[in-house]
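Ticket #4471: structure output looks truncated?

Reporter: J.K.
Steps to reproduce: submitted the chain below (137 residues) through the standard prediction queue, then opened the result file.
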Amino acid sequence: MKFDELVVGRSAEFAKTITEADVVMFAGVTGDFNPVHIDAVAAAKTRFGGRIVHGMLSAGLISAAIANRLPGPGSIYLGQTLKFTLPVRIGDTVTATITVAEILPRRRVKLSTVCTNQNGEKVIDGEATVMVDEANG
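Returned output as attached by the reporter:
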């Protein structure tokens, strides 16, 4: 998307159903083998009562929405705030919705970033700052 096409309120989504394989691969790539994510017996003893998906795996869907949808290819992620509001479970479908909140100087844009589960419950709330690639107008 070209920078001059960005307007406050424009939004886009990216959704994915989180699988067992996603969690195992994420743990392998990051080295985060926290038992609450990997060990069903240990996770059952936590306040969550079972395994939960890595928060940053879910937050990664925001990055996918930015890179693939809005502003799209060539976008440069400059910053992100995140508040994890509910756990995500294996089998949940997470939808990352990004909305242009503010157009900033120097080809930058501030985005509202929200992830919801298949029940419409907010699992992540945040804000991102992104630079739009000069090749995108």
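Triage note (M.O.): checked the attachment and the full token line is present. The radius of gyration is 16 Å.
Status: closed, working as intended.
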